[in-house]
């Protein structure tokens, strides 16, 4: 029997989770040896809509993507559910829907439901008490305690660190399984957070390519005492860059000869996605096998 996400966290070993956005990116991450995946809201918005991450993606779209990913990979998936798509009652439905679709963990944040389209860096917050209600609704809605609830606070963008820490304490006391304080830009703040929750709750941290985190590697986070590290943008940023270069070359030169050494050909791509095994399995159901 495979290990649950909760059991993985109990090993007290840092779990690195790359951000994925479809079945192919999820399969590549699993093949690379990662133990878990993060279905990134921003990566999904970029790839599904080619729009910024301002709350445009719907629960239906997240769920459909998760179902396709879970049909292809077996490792745990932590799902970015933004604000839970509404109030506490919406959060309860979100948890039920995503749990049925195969989420190992569901992340709810304390930002307001509708982001400000005029300022992508603004992080307006709901009240601490409203977020506590959302966490309790999420816990009550889940079918299994093996489905973990991650509480994310974006308080450092608009409040002091002490206020952010107070929120984190309240979310932990409400029963959140994982605590995530986003936007910490000082090492002392990371150290105070880990000291506060050491041995009590698993802590999660984002590592963004080009971000302002005072730590930049998984090893540094492990040494601080974090349990989970997310790389939400790495896959989509690299994939976008590669596609952009390839398409520009194709348009300019009319071919991709100069790039082919770094590209999959049809044979290697089909091998990667398991086409030979898939076709071999299909032979088991060929109609000629069942004729009397």
How does this model look, in words?
Helix 2 crosses helix 4, helix 4 packs parallel to helix 5 and helix 5 packs parallel to helix 6. The chain has one domain: TIM Barrel. The model has no long low-confidence stretch (mean pLDDT 94). An 8-stranded parallel beta barrel has the order 1-2-3-4-5-6-7-8, surrounded by 7 helices. The chain is of the alpha/beta class and 292 residues long. It has 12 helices and 8 strands.
Quick structural summary:
This protein has 292 residues and is of the alpha/beta class. Helices cover 45% and strands 12% of the residues.
> Could you report the average pLDDT, rounded to the nearest whole number?
94
In total, the number of strands is: 8
Name the CATH superfamily classification.
Phosphoenolpyruvate-binding domains
CATH class: Alpha Beta
For the largest beta-sheet, the strand count, sense and barrel status come to: 8 strands, parallel, barrel
Which architecture per CATH?
Alpha-Beta Barrel
Q: Could you tell me how far the N terminus lies from the C terminus, measured between alpha carbons in angstroms?
A: 39 Å
Strand order of the largest sheet: 1-2-3-4-5-6-7-8
Q: What fraction of residues sit in β-strands? A: 5-15%
Coarse structural class: alpha/beta
Low-confidence stretches: none
CATH topology: TIM Barrel
Rounded Rg: 21 Å
Q: What is the H/E string?
A: HEHEHHEHEHEHEHEHEHHH
Tell me the count of domains.
1
Shape field: globular
Proportion in helices? 40-55%
């Amino acid at each position: 029997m495979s290990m649950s996400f909760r059991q993985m966290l109990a090993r007290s070993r840092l779990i690195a989770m790359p951000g994925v956005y479809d079945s192919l990116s999820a399969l590549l991450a699993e093949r690379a040896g990662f133990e878990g995946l993060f279905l990134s809201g921003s990566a999904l918005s970029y790839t599904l809509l080619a729009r910024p991450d301002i709350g445009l993606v719907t629960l239906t779209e997240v769920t459909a993507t998760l179902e396709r990913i879970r049909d292809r990979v077996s490792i745990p998936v932590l799902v970015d559910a933004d604000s839970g798509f509404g109030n506490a009652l919406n959060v309860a439905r979100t948890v039920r829907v995503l749990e049925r679709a195969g989420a190992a963990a569901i992340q709810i944040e304390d930002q307001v439901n509708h982001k400000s389209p005029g300022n992508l860096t603004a992080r307006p917050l709901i009240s601490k008490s409203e977020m506590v209600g959302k966490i309790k609704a999420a816990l009550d809605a889940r079918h299994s305690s093996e489905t973990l609830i991650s509480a994310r606070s974006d308080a450092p963008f608009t409040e002091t660190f002490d206020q952010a820490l107070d929120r984190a304490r309240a979310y932990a006391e409400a029963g959140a399984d994982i605590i995530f304080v986003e936007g910490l830009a000082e090492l002392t703040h990371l150290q105070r957070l880990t000291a506060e929750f050491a041995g009590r709750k698993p802590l999660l941290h984002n590592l963004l390519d080009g971000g302002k985190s005072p730590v930049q590697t998984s090893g540094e986070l492990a040494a601080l005492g974090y349990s989970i590290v997310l790389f939400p943008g790495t896959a989509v940023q690299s994939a976008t860059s590669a596609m952009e270069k390839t398409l520009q070359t194709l348009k300019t030169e009319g071919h991709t000869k100069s790039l082919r050494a770094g590209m999959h050909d049809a044979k290697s791509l089909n091998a990667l996605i398991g086409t030979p095994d898939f076709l071999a399995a299909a032979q088991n159901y060929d109609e000629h096998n069942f004729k009397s």
